[in-house]
Amino acid sequence: VAKVRAAGVKVIMMTGDHPSTAAAIAKSVGIFALDAQPTSLTLTSTPTSRLSAGLVTGDDLEKMTPDLVEDILLRTDDIVFARMKPEQKLQVVETCQRLGAVVTATGDGINDAAAIRRADVGIAMGQTGAAYSVKCADIVLMDDNFASIVSGIEEGRLMFENLKKILLYTLSSNVPELAAFLLSMGAQVPLPLGILTVLCIDLGTDLLPAVSLAFEEAETDLMAAKPRNPATDRLLNERLIFLSFGQLGLIQAASGFFTYFVIMAENGFWPSRLLGLRQAWESKAINDLRDSYGQEWTYDDRKTLEYTCQAGFLFSVVVVQWVNVIQCRTRRLSMISRPMNNMVLNFSILFETVIAFLVIYVPGNQEGLQLAPLWPLWWLPGLAFSLVLLCYEELRKAIARKHEGSWVDKETRF
Q1: Closest to 258 (Cα-Cα) out of 330, 207, 183
Q2: Cα 391 from Cα 385, distance rounded (Å)
Q3: Average pLDDT for residues 7-36, to the nearest whole number?
Q4: How many helices (H) and strands (E) does the chain have?
C-alpha cells in the first residue's frame, strides 16, 4: 500500500463489513495509520479542508449528492467505505471516473462484479473469487495477492518507458529513408537509397535492436513518479517526434548523404554535376554520360556506382544506429552510467552489423538487393557521424540534468 501511494495511486477500501471492522482491517493493511482516528463522514459532517482519514457508511452515502461524494473523495487522503451495497460500490467507481481518475477495482465476491466490470481495469481473484467476478474482470490474480497488482503497475510503467525508447529508435531511421527519396525527386539526383535497401534497414538491421530495448531495466525508480496524464502524456508525443525526426534523424540523414556524395565525388561526379542528372542517369540508351572530369560512363557502370552509393548510405545509417540504440537506453542519464548488461542489445548490435556486411559483400547482391561492395575507406564517414550523434546526445542529456526545467529538458524529455 505504501509503495503504490508513493507512486501517486490512491487506495480506497469498499466493504460490506461493519464500520468498526472495516476501520480495523484498514489499519492492519496500512490504509489507515495505526494511531489514526478516522472521521465519520455523513451528510452533515463533510470535510471543509484536507482530511487524513475518513469513514463513510453505505446508509450515509445514499443520502449524499454526487457533488458531495466528489468533495469527500477529493478532500480525504485515506478513505474507507463500510456497509456498502453492490450498486454503491459501482457509484464510487463512476464518481472517481468522473473526476478524471483511471480506476482499478478488485474484489472476490459477487457483490464486487458490477464495480469490477465498470472500472477501467477490473481485477478478480483467481483462487477465491466468484465465477461471475472472474468473468467480468480484465485481469485475474492467480495468487490473490495485492502485491501482484503493485508489481503489475511497476511492470506496466517500465513497458511504457521502453516502448517510447523503441519508437525513438525506429522513427529516427525513417528520416534518412524519407529524405533520400525527397532529394531524388526534388533535385533529380540518382537515387541515394533504393526501396530494397530501405527494406534491409527496416526489416533487417533495425528490427532486433528495436526489440532489444524492450529488455531494458528501469532508468530510475518508476514507483517514485506520479501517474502520467493519459490526456497529455501519450506514447507518441510531440517531444518524441521532435527528438527523433528533428534531431537524431537529421544526423543520420546527414551521415547517409555525406557518404553518398563522397563516393560519387571520388568516382568523378561532383554534387553540382548530379543536380538534374537523374533522367539521363536512368536512360539505358545513354552509354556516354560524362562526369565532372569528362569521363564517359555506360549505363551498367552508372548502375554499379549507384548501387555502391546505396550500400554506403545503408552502412552509414547502420553505424549511426549503433550509437543511437545505446543512447536510446536512457532518457536523461549518460550512457557511461549504464553498464552494457542488456545481452539482447549487445547481440543485436553485432547481429545488425553482420547483416549489413552480408547484404553488401555477399556475391550476387548487386542483382538481388541492388547493393555493391564498398571500399573500407567509405566506412569512415558513418563512423564520424556516429561520434557526432554521441557527443550531441551526451551534451543534450547533460544540459537536461544540470538545468532541470530548462527548454532543452522540457522539449526533449520524451
Answers
A1: 183
A2: 10
A3: 92
A4: 20, 9
